[in-house]
Design goal:
3 strands, disordered N terminus, about 75% helix, globular
């Protein structure tokens, strides 16, 4: 039986079940969103690097988030755009595995960075007198390094269990990128271990960190309500509301896809949730931060004024 099986060396991403004209419309729309993602996160990253006033722990974590969002989008969107123009163009097995690994890596890193950012906001509002000691540059560097290290190591574990599987059943992946659960459906072997590993990993990097963020912001909300000055309450809430928006968008789509009940969620629905997760969320992050953060807007105006005067 094994001698009759033909091993798959390349895959075809089915993408979106629409006609050729709609493919062109989606190509133009997604290309625009992709450019906005790169420009928005690039501007945030550039402002943080160029403006010494933004050299603080909060913007240190925000710069890492911008890097991850750029890499996140670059990993999935270009291949999706290629497939919209050439739906039958195959993707090599190695390319597919690399895309799966990078998607998991950047997703895990972003989960952990959002926890670090919530810790920074909690200390800034609830323990302002001890902020410099609790959120020192050494602590910030350690949290960022831990986020990247855990992201790479956990993704390597998933990849290590994925690579030995034989893929000989089908060639077509019902997704717009090599998402791990969609790839597992093509394996002609028992994938229960892999699926359990994905669920356990999702619980570890989604449920645990999200619970920690909820606890942090419960304390933050309590501290904000105790502030006597209305202006002080407004400023504190404005600083944290942008982070809450990012957290809600990111964790909400990821938890519905990977942690929620498997029944009642067709593949197409999960596909569109991950489209939001990998395309719209990285694009919205810099918009949310720049529109809701007065320091970023002031820094951008200052930089534009300097360019105009120069």
């Amino acid at each position: 039986m094994e001698s009759n099986m033909t091993m798959i060396t390349e895959f075809i991403l089915l993408g979106f079940p629409v006609g050729p004209r709609m493919h062109l419309v989606l190509f133009g729309l997604f290309s625009l969103f992709y450019v906005f993602t790169l420009l928005g996160n690039g501007v945030i990253l550039g402002l943080i690097c160029l403006d010494p006033r933004l050299h603080s722990p909060m913007y240190f974590f925000l710069s890492h988030l911008a890097i991850v969002d750029i890499a996140y989008a670059c990993n999935t969107v270009p291949q999706m755009l290629v497939n919209l123009l050439h739906p039958a163009k195959p993707l090599s097995f190695a390319g597919c595995m690399i895309q799966t690994f990078l998607f998991l890596t950047f997703a895990i890193i972003e989960c952990l960075l959002l926890v670090a950012m919530s810790y920074d906001r909690y200390v800034a509002i609830c323990c302002p007198l001890r902020y410099c000691a609790l959120v020192s540059w050494r602590v910030c560097t350690g949290l960022a390094a831990a986020s990247w290290t855990v992201g790479v190591l956990l993704s390597l574990v998933h990849l290590g269990f994925l690579l030995p599987l034989p893929f000989c059943r089908f060639q077509k992946i019902n997704h717009f990128f090599c998402e791990i659960m969609a790839v597992l459906k093509l394996a002609c072997a028992d994938t229960r271990t892999n699926e359990t590993l994905v669920l356990a990993g999702a619980a570890f990097v989604l449920v645990g960190p999200f619970s920690s963020i909820v606890a942090s912001y419960t304390g933050i909300l309590t501290a904000i309500l105790r502030i006597q000055s209305r202006e002080g309450r407004r400023k504190a809430f404005s600083t944290c509301s942008s982070h809450l928006c990012v957290v809600g968008l990111f964790y909400g789509t990821a938890m519905i896809t990977y942690v929620g009940p498997r029944t009642g969620k067709p593949q197409e629905q999960k596909k569109y949730l991950l489209l939001f997760h990998s395309l719209f969320n990285p694009m919205l992050n810099p918009l949310i931060y720049s529109l809701r953060n007065s320091e970023v807007k002031t820094s951008l105006k200052r930089l534009l004024r300097m360019q105009a005067d120069g």
